[in-house]
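Entry details:
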Amino acid sequence: MTVLGWEKRYSEILKEFGYSKKSDLESAKLLNSLLKNKFPLNKLRSKVFEQNVFVIGAGPSLLSCIPVLKRFSFITKIVADGAAKALIENNIMPDILVTDLDGDEKSLKKIGKGKTIMVVHAHGDNFDKLELVSKFKNCIGTTEAKSFGKIHNFGGFTDGDRCVFLAKHFKAKKIILFGMDFGNKIGKYSKTKITSKKTKIKKLRRGKKLLEWIASKNSSDLYTTSKPIKGFKKIYYNELESVLADENAF
């Protein structure tokens, strides 16, 4: 079941960016046909439910958090597409990768061969990339429209905020953001081919608004090590151990 109020947010996104709901649906139908098996959601749920979760984006602060992520190797890591290349370059394998397939293709294929659960998003602009799912061992399809068949809607727009929506959907205990800056500077690993910096920043702003919206529903388990986001408690790397250990942190 999609988060209550998502339909309104989706309509706002369609209007703001001039996207077509029909194209989104056609892309979702294609993805549904390409997925050979319906991945059991329980396997995804088991990695998140009542677990502490790191959500990792491809913002400018990504590289600074690599040593920290290595230290907390036992924590479930939900990773946005663009950050994947940086992580595997540093021998960090995502538990869950959220992607619309516009990141580094070589990295996606490498990660998709392993145990990582690939959460692939269908939208009107990625018809030509969906065939990539045939290379992935464990794959779930998502959409911003209605769920059907092998396609789910956990909420969210950009890869980064969709990671958070997924973690909230499966009731993570605590969600801590890394490399999720949402500023005017685009990270080195954020989308390998940027057609418009202005559009990219506009998308990041919308993603931030969505996180603020989801936080307004329940912010008690949300933290960020990146730039401040309304509804997320700002913490620093040296505070992580106490936050993860203390049920009543802050």
Observations:
- The domain at 6-245 is CATH 3.90.1480 (sialyltransferase cstii, chain A).
- Residues 197-217 form the longest helix (21 residues).
- The two ends are 31 Å apart (CA to CA).
